[in-house]
Design a protein that fits this description.
Pfam families: TetR_N
InterPro entries: DNA-bd_HTH_TetR-type_CS, Homeodomain-like_sf, HTH-type_Tx_Regulator, HTH_TetR
CATH topology of the largest domain: Tetracycline Repressor, domain 2
Number of helices: 10
Oligomer: single chain
Strand content: under 5%
Order of helices and strands: HHHHHHHHHH
Keywords: DNA-binding, Repressor
CATH architecture of the largest domain: Orthogonal Bundle
GO molecular function: DNA binding
Distance between the termini: 65 Å
Largest sheet: none
CATH superfamily of the largest domain: Tetracycline Repressor, domain 2
Number of domains: 2
CATH class of the largest domain: Mainly Alpha
Protein name: HTH tetR-type domain-containing protein
Number of strands: 0
Shape: elongated
């Protein structure tokens, strides 16, 4: 019996996550209620709170799963890359920022606005997204460390990762808030900035 209960719990959680992702995408974060998600997932509203304490926590779970999938997809890039580390970092950031294309620009604008509020859920959302960003910076540090012998002088991996992240976020904000900027234009600008960061630091 306990095995069946655990299986039902897992299925409920999966149904909730799938319904939440669909409704968040269709209606946006602010216009989605836990009751809507519960109805679509065919569970009681109270059941959702047994798994997720808030709507923001549910959204962060979805984001975390998607980032984990990106990490899994790119482990070979981090561990096995034996060429120019700048090319590897550029490719990695290209793959990581593909996460933002899973949702519309208007959805991300809404999330960015929600993150600036001081409500408890907004603070939780902000902290959670920053935690996902730290994953990306860790990947960049790993690539630099794995390819340390490609640089003319020792590189401060933490500062380098922070600089790459800052460039990526600046370009990402421009991309999200300007509907005229295409994905290709965003990636081209990001590549240029990453190349600039490491210009003159690599062996021939």
């Amino acid at each position: 019996m306990s095995g069946l209960r655990e299986e039902k719990k897992k299925q409920n959680q999966l149904n909730i996550i799938q319904s939440a992702k669909k409704i968040f995408t269709d209606k946006g974060f602010q216009n989605t209620s836990m009751a809507m998600i519960a109805k679509d997932a065919k569970v009681g509203t109270g059941t959702i709170y047994n798994y997720f304490p808030s709507k923001g926590a549910l959204l962060l779970t979805i984001f975390a799963e998607e980032v984990a999938q990106l990490e899994n997809d790119n482990q070979s890039l981090i561990a096995d890359y034996n060429g120019n580390p700048v090319e590897s970092i550029t490719q990695l950031m290209t793959e990581f920022t593909a996460f933002f294309d899973l949702y519309s620009k208007s959805f991300w604008r809404e999330i960015m606005h929600a993150m600036t509020e001081e409500a408890e859920e907004s603070i939780h959302l902000r902290r959670g997204l920053f935690g996902l960003d730290e994953e990306a910076m860790l990947w960049v540090r790993q690539i630099i460390e794995e390819n340390a012998d490609c640089f003319l002088t020792p590189i401060n991996t933490e500062e380098a990762a922070n600089t790459v992240y800052a460039a990526a976020m600046m370009q990402m904000f421009s991309y999200i808030y300007d509907d005229s900027i295409t994905r290709d234009q965003f990636l081209h600008r990001l590549k240029q900035q990453i190349e600039f960061i490491f210009a003159g630091k690599l062996k021939d």
